[in-house]
Write a structure and sequence with these properties.
Number of domains of chain C: 1
Structural class of chain B: alpha/beta
Largest interface: A-C, 105 and 112 residues
CATH class of chain C: Mainly Alpha
Strand content of chain B: 15-25%
Number of helices of chain C: 13
Number of strands of chain B: 13
Helix content of chain C: over 70%
CATH class of the largest domain in chain B: Alpha Beta
Oligomer: heterotrimer
Distance between the termini of chain C: 15 Å
CATH superfamily of chain C: MetI-like
Number of domains of chain B: 2
Shape of chain B: globular
Distance between the termini of chain B: 44 Å
Radius of gyration of chain C: 23 Å
Shape of chain C: globular
CATH architecture of the largest domain in chain B: 3-Layer(aba) Sandwich
CATH superfamily of the largest domain in chain B: Periplasmic binding protein-like II
Largest sheet of chain B: 6 strands, mixed
Strand order of the largest sheet of chain C: 1-2
Chains: A mainly alpha, B alpha/beta, C mainly alpha
CATH topology of the largest domain in chain B: D-Maltodextrin-Binding Protein, domain 2
Order of helices and strands of chain C: HEEHHHHHHHHHHHH
Order of helices and strands of chain B: HEHEHEHEEEEHEHHEHEHEEHHHHHEH
Helix content of chain B: 40-55%
């Protein structure tokens, strides 16, 4: 960009400073949580009581927490793949086709996030219990796909709106079948959105506690455990689990970044 | 349970903990080969803490049982969960007395045989506790109880000042009074202030007067809090007084060094009660019964009274005796010393405590609707 | 555009439809039916009782909470979008490729941390004896009450939606045609004017969708109003939980939920239509 008139150092720097401030705001509670997870006092207060690893020990020794983490990971990964696949199909349908009942189709696809989670939890439990699919991890997966697919759809639809529709037509004219055009034109174009959808749906599932409380029954996920702690036993164990989850997901995201960079094309930021 | 001493030996502790964990992991294959039978799983639906090791470990070891808890955060979520879950999902259910009536009316709990339980060891007041019996049949066994009064910050108020519900209106507490977000205990407290002998059994005039009085308190209120919020607000001093709670919260905070206390004011206090029942359709009813027998026996009662999640008073007299020998400081702190003329049971006998229960002459909805209006005011 | 039904088209469109039909439609219908049920003896009984609707919609508390929540969420959407824009603009236009990748990476991380834990941690900062007031105390400024107020709730809403809004805005901003910007600059268009007249319209889709997501998320959230707002005054989400405390009054709670759903649906459709106004973009 060679527009000297409009580049000005103070503006550049204040924008960067603002960005830093934004990151500070977003990470402040995470940092505080990390610090307080080592606090010997049971309740957070200033000044800090003293350094202690007791809460980490307690959490690590609790088999239910590990089970919760496993459930959360299994559910999260399954949900993200399923939801992104469903969302992709729906976004493409909206982008390309016009048909009778399209509004209804879209409404059904976009409705779930609008429903207050406590009520949705009860309704899903009622339904799943009646068909014998409640109280297990697959219940969480089913409910979460329902809730996350709309997110995936919205993100991919956003990306598709940036595509010139004649690109696809051009591919057809050059003799590509619809499937081939999909594989070689649409999907590569949508790749950043697909990855974004995978991550965001996994993140939503990772953190969802309200519906999970109802449908997971006795096989709880980690966020349900956190809710339980928050509502039943306030202690730095909450901060410890928060840190656990943070580190686990950081690892996942770093892995994903490495995978992306290995593939050569520039990840989500690529054009 | 947990060692809170920090500085000396943290590293030792960590290493010890890590080695134990590693050792445990490595030893597991040996253990499982040795185990004769897999422990039987017993599901429990309860408030947080009732299936933690400090309460259940002894029972689990003796009967080769493993508890699988489902902790709820409110009686209504609990009922919703049971209503929609397949029957027999929950073997043992812990609930507040008010919910026992609801559980029973909806048919979610089994009938029990009073002969099976230690009622003969109970104080007479608790042997036929209302709400747990229906037409002479027993459905739920009273396990623990506690009192609700004025919870206050000891730096901000003296015990004398806090000994009346009128303190909520005190000028120095404007914006610093909080409500535990449930209508029942809060309205009950103000009902006691109004002088109603039976705070939940009031006629239309008294109900109107109660609502009026309550509304005058609204400007003093800083917020409505759930369990976690109540802890934080009292602990960090955001709220200097909290209505609708008692020692079950302040006792836990006190143990961790916070400067809070609960006191039963002169107008009287309320009593909450928790009891265990057996879920209808449970496949392990016998084992569930054994659990209830244990937790209502003297040893189990002591564990219940000193539960790490939140302390409570116990209805078993033999339990009081055992507690006085095992943990005399806690017995004294909670008021469970038999000789003390001001112990918990004496307070009930003197009429200073009224049971918290569902409203009698109005519907629960009326009370709850008013509470919503009050919050939105 | 082809209008004939093809295997290709069906394979792409059907899975979502089938999944939602099987796993979502039934609970949704159950919810609607539930709003007409009666509660007798603390047990929900199937019924066709419009009384729940008339009772709930007739209460002033409901409408106050409704408009209050509407206002709060709209404010949250506007405030978050406004606060996010300089950040997403900076990431999209002012950073090198590597820096941008790291910035996105950092923005994604908070997603994966528990929202509950983050809100709980904010109390340490915002309480009267908390970190911020302690710092203010150092410079002699009085304690500012931040907790248990609308301000607290807003901070919570920001915590919930800021990362998502930044990312969604970013998504559109990254793909804004740079030649447009260059052209504007060549025509002697000032910085600010370029932003408002070239960049923003070009990124309209992302900006609208971001604001919409923020609105939807905050409209139904009960964690922030409860833990940072002190439940005072109550929002619709809090009203739902409160209604169930009337002795299993899930039917009345369902009424509130359905009104919320209808509202969000209308707003979502309007927003999406506005975002994708010109067909084919």
């Amino acid at each position: 960009m060679s527009d000297d008139i409009n580049r000005s150092a103070p503006v550049e720097w204040s924008l960067r400073a603002y960005l830093l401030l934004t990151f500070a705001f977003v990470f402040a509670p995470i940092a505080a949580s990390f610090v307080f997870s080592f606090n010997v006092d049971r309740f957070p207060s200033l000044p800090l009581g003293g350094f202690s690893l007791t809460w980490y020990q307690q959490v690590a020794a609790d088999p239910l927490v590990w089970e919760g983490l496993r459930n959360t990971l299994v559910a999260g990964i399954t949900v993200s793949v399923l939801a992104t696949a469903l969302g992709f199909g729906a976004a493409y349908t909206d982008f390309r086709y016009n048909f009778f009942g399209k509004s209804l189709y879209l409404a059904l696809a976009l409705l779930p996030p609008t429903i207050p989670v406590v009520i949705l939890g009860l309704a899903m439990l009622a339904f799943l219990a009646n068909i014998g699919l409640s109280g297990a991890i697959h219940s969480v997966i089913i409910a979460h796909v329902v809730m996350c697919a709309p997110f995936a759809m919205a993100i991919i639809r956003l990306r598709l709106s940036q595509m010139d529709p004649s690109l696809e037509a051009a591919a057809w004219n050059l003799g590509a079948s619809q499937w081939v055009a999909m594989r070689h034109v649409i999907i590569p174009f949508c790749r950043p959105a697909i990855f974004a959808a995978l991550f965001i749906t996994m993140a939503v599932s990772f953190d969802e506690f309200a519906v999970s409380w109802f449908v997971s029954g006795l096989n709880e996920t980690l966020p349900v455990k956190v809710l339980g702690f928050l509502q039943g036993q306030v202690s730095p164990k909450i901060n410890v689990i928060g840190t656990f989850v943070f580190l686990t997901s950081m690892t996942l995201v770093i892995l994903a970044q490495i995978l992306l960079m290995k593939r050569g094309t520039g990840g989500k930021a690529g054009q | 349970m947990s060692d809170l001493s920090s500085s000396s030996g943290t590293r030792r502790h960590f290493l010890k903990g890590a080695t134990t964990l590693a050792g445990g992991v490595l030893a597991t294959p040996f253990l499982s080969r040795r185990a004769f039978a897999q422990p039987v799983e017993l599901t429990m639906l309860a408030w947080y803490g009732h299936a933690e090791p400090d309460v259940v470990a002894a029972f689990e070891a003796e009967h080769n049982v493993k508890f699988k808890p489902k902790y709820y955060t409110g009686g209504d979520n609990m009922l919703g969960l049971i209503a929609q879950s397949p029957p027999g999902t929950f073997d043992v259910i812990l609930s507040d007395a008010e919910y026992v009536q609801q559980l029973n009316a909806a048919g979610y709990i089994e009938e029990l045989d009073p002969e099976d339980y230690h009622f003969n060891e109970y104080f007479p007041e608790f042997q036929q506790f209302p709400g747990h019996w229906q037409d002479g049949k027993l459905f739920s066994v009273l396990t623990r109880f506690g009192f609700l009064g004025v919870a206050y910050n000891t730096d901000a108020l003296t015990e004398a000042e806090a000994s009346s519900y009128n303190v909520y209106w005190s000028e120095k507490l404007t914006g610093k009074v909080g409500h535990f977000d449930w209508h029942l205990p809060n309205l009950g407290q103000i009902s006691l202030l109004q002088g109603n002998p039976s705070p939940y059994d009031i006629d239309e005039d008294a109900w109107d007067a109660l609502q009026e009085k309550m509304m005058t308190l609204r400007p003093q209120i800083g917020g409505f809090f759930d369990y976690g919020g109540t802890f934080s607000s009292l602990q960090n001093g955001q709220m200097l007084a909290m209505a609708g709670i008692g020692d079950w919260i302040t006792g836990t905070l006190e143990k961790n060094g916070a400067k809070v206390r609960s006191v039963i004011p002169e107008e009287g206090g309320l009593q909450w009660t928790e009891s265990f029942s057996i879920g209808k359709g449970s496949a392990k009813a016998d084992l569930a019964k054994q659990w209830i027998q244990y937790i209502t026996s003297a040893q189990g009662q002591v564990k219940s009274a000193t539960m790490a999640a939140y302390p409570a008073l116990i209805p078993n007299r033999a339990g009081w005796e055992l507690l006085a020998t095992e943990d005399p400081a806690e017995a004294k702190r909670q008021g469970m010393v038999l000789d003390d003329p001001n112990n918990a049971v004496e307070m009930i006998r003197k009429g200073r405590i009224q049971y918290r229960q569902l409203p009698v002459q109005q519907s629960l909805e009326d009370w709850n609707d008013f509470w919503s209006d009050y919050k939105g005011a | 555009m082809r209008k004939t039904v093809s295997v290709y088209g069906l394979t792409l469109s059907m899975p979502m439809l089938l999944w939602q039909l099987i796993f979502f439609l039934a609970p949704l219908i159950f919810l609607i039916a539930l709003s007409f049920w009666t509660v007798r003896n603390f047990r929900m009984e199937p019924d066709f009782n419009p009384g729940n609707w008339s009772r709930m919609l007739g209460r002033s508390v409901f409408w106050e909470a409704y408009f209050r929540t509407l206002l709060l969420s709209a404010s949250a959407a506007i405030v978050t979008s406004a606060l996010a824009f300089p950040a997403s603009y900076a990431i999209a236009f002012k950073l090198s490729d590597t820096a941008r990748r790291w910035a996105i990476f950092l923005m994604v991380i908070p997603f994966f941390t528990s929202y509950l834990v983050r809100v709980y941690s904010w109390q340490i900062f915002l309480s009267d004896n908390g970190i911020i007031n302690a710092a203010l105390g150092y410079v002699g400024l009085g304690p500012w009450p931040m907790l248990n107020s609308t301000f607290g709730t807003m901070i919570g809403y920001l915590t919930l939606s800021l990362p998502l809004v930044v990312l969604l805005q970013l998504f559109s901003l990254i793909f804004v045609d740079r030649t447009l910007v260059e052209a504007a600059h060549n025509l002697r268009c000032g910085r600010l004017r370029t932003v408002f007249e070239v960049v923003v319209p070009a990124a309209r889709v992302g900006l609208t969708i971001a604001a919409l997501f923020c609105f939807i998320l905050t409209f139904g959230d009960f964690v922030s109003p409860l833990y940072l707002g002190g439940g005072d005054p109550p929002t619709l989400s809090i009203l739902i939980t409160d209604t169930t405390k009337s002795g299993q009054q899930w039917p009345r709670a369902a009424v509130v939920a359905l009104v919320m759903i209808a509202t969000l649906l209308v707003i979502a459709f309007a927003a999406v239509r506005f975002a994708y106004k010109e067909r084919g973009r």
